[in-house]
Design goal:
- The chain has helices at about 1-5, 20-50, 75-90, 95-120, 130-150, 175-195, 200-220, 220-230, 240-255, 265-285, 285-295, 295-315, 325-330, 335-355.
- It is an all-alpha fold.
- The chain has one domain.
- It is globular, with a radius of gyration of 20 Å.
- The two termini are about 40 Å apart.
């Protein structure tokens, strides 16, 4: 919105030319989202406390989590508010990719909000049924993928870029649609599974968003994409502004989610953040890089899959408790130790993801 208001005035007032640049608007978007989060965080937490009932805990919940009883969830509303407002203020709203990512983010956030609402108001720890939630997520993701493919030039629209290879860009054809839906829905639920300790999920979200801010900018810039020998997706650079807003909103949320957390993001935040990252990966043709950069999320999701398969086939558990962070809790690790070590892993994987831009 501000982009459309200020840039036309640049001819009369030279300094407004600053807002033509994606890099500048990414910084402003990050700062705006951070300010909104910090300004409204306390009031939102007080409102959530007044509205929600305490949902029943799982029977195998780690003992230390009983101390967190009464901490409000659905804090993802704060992330969505800051992210949405900041993106609308600083992004080029004529860009279809921005709207595709924003719709997925808000749509997945709405699904998560519905799930959280059922848990908190009906004292139902299960919330939405798994099939219904997965069906809604898949339908929304498919609509977004169809939109993205329509916006992207052929044959790149249904192609898959392979990291570390200069010219390996296989066209998946119709298989691209279920693949891209899997990336978006899988990313969303992987972040959701990671969100189990104070600050555990939100920092890796920030790290992955930062990596994809660079990726989106380079992929969307013809000069840099040619220099780095990566695929060029015209218009995708504007998603760097969205990533900046996501980083700012996440940083502001971390202020309240840092141990001991004043609020949890809930499904509202985790599903929306994961869905956003997955959609950005699909737009920039970096789905495989997302699996590397967001490797912590993948690891958490795989631990759950392995646990379920092992228990069903053999009746034995591989981990003391899944997802993986709960396994280490059961082994006696302190929560801050788990969180900080997982952050370190996320940072290393983020740097590895960035390296794919040059190592080809």
């Amino acid at each position: 919105m501000l982009y459309h208001l200020l840039v036309p005035l640049a001819g009369e007032f030279g300094p407004l030319n600053l807002f033509r640049y994606i890099t500048a608007r990414t910084g402003f978007a990050m700062l705006t989202a951070l300010i909104i989060s910090l300004a409204f965080g306390n009031r939102l937490i007080l409102w959530l406390k007044s509205q929600q009932k305490e949902p029943p805990l799982r029977a195998d919940t780690p003992e230390r989590h009983l101390l967190k009883k009464g901490t409000p969830t659905m804090g993802g509303v704060l992330i969505l508010m800051a992210l949405g407002i900041s993106t609308l203020l600083w992004a080029d709203l004529r860009n279809g990719y921005v709207w595709a990512v924003l719709v997925v983010t808000l749509g997945f956030g709405a699904i998560g909000f519905w799930d959280d609402y059922m848990k908190l108001t009906k004292r139902n720890s299960k919330g939405l049924s798994g099939r219904l939630r997965l069906g809604l997520e898949s339908a929304l993701a498919l609509a977004a993928v169809l939109w993205i493919v329509w916006l992207t030039r052929e044959p790149l629209s249904t192609s898959l870029a392979v990291p570390f290879f200069k010219s390996l860009l296989p066209d998946l054809g119709w298989f691209f649609f279920p693949f891209a839906v899997f990336v978006i829905v899988g990313s969303s639920n992987a972040v959701n599974l990671t969100d189990g300790l104070d600050g555990l999920a939100i920092v890796p979200v920030m790290i992955v968003a930062a990596v994809f801010a660079f990726i989106a900018y380079f992929v969307g810039n013809a000069f840099f994409s040619n220099y780095l020998l990566i695929q060029h997706v015209p218009g995708s650079g504007e998603l760097a502004v969205f990533c900046g807003a996501l980083m700012g909103a996440s940083l502001g949320f971390l202020w309240f989610n840092a141990p001991p957390a004043m609020v949890f993001m809930g499904d509202t935040g985790s599903l929306s953040c994961g869905g956003a990252l997955g959609t950005i990966a699909v737009v920039t043709k970096n789905e495989l890089v997302l699996a590397l950069t967001g490797g912590l999320f993948v690891l958490e999701a795989v631990s759950v899959i392995v646990q379920v398969i092992s228990f069903k086939l053999t009746g034995k558990r591989v981990f003391m408790m899944a997802p993986l962070h709960h396994h280490f809790e059961k082994k006696g690790w302190q929560e801050p130790t788990i969180v900080i070590r997982f952050w370190i892993i996320a940072m290393i994987l983020g740097l590895a993801g960035l390296s794919t831009l040059k190592l080809r």
